[in-house]
Amino acid sequence: xxxxxFLFTQEPHWKKHHSGLKNTLPTNxxxxxxxxxxxxxxxxxxxxxxxxxxxLFHRKKVAFLSExxxxxxxxxxxxxxxxxxxxxxxxxxILARTILPEKTVKIAKRNLSHLGTRPLGEVIFSYPKLQRxxxxxxxxxxxxxxxGLNHTIDIKQAIWGRRTVYAIHQQPLLVSEFFxxxxxxxG
Length: 187
Fold this sequence. Notes:
Layout: E1 15-16, H1 27-33, H2 39-47, E2 51-62, H3 65-71, E3 78-88, E4 91-100, H4 102-107, H5 120-124, E5 131-140, H6 147-152, E6 159-168, E7 171-179, H7 181-184
Antiparallel strand pairs: 1-5, 2-3, 3-4, 4-7, 5-6, 6-7
């Protein structure tokens, strides 16, 4: 396990979104990567209340270098890092990694640092002035996941993901979401 991630052995390689990138993605991946509403809400349309969150990692650590750059934070700064698995009836659907800088946690009145097993999307999409500032896309190869994760979920194929910089009252947070095959089957 990487010291600041339960999910990754190394920092993923991300591609910055540009107009031609969408057409290079498989159709079922496009619908998830470019979803503008809460992914939890979308999952609940299919699975109802059986969608739940398993916390894999929840600590104050230094984020990956590219995450700090994207959030315009000093690399040595500790941020709350939360990694979770969203699943329904034991079926893995989405892996998520969130970077929450201290200023963002404070502006959100600590709602974001005490989520427990509540999905992040339920909280951030309730903010009336939530902004999307940036989008990156990645495809994670099976060897890039940690052994710890592979004991939890057996990943045998490349997994597509997106990371989005959101802002709540002009304070940023970074949410990376990785779409398991079970989620992509939903279309």
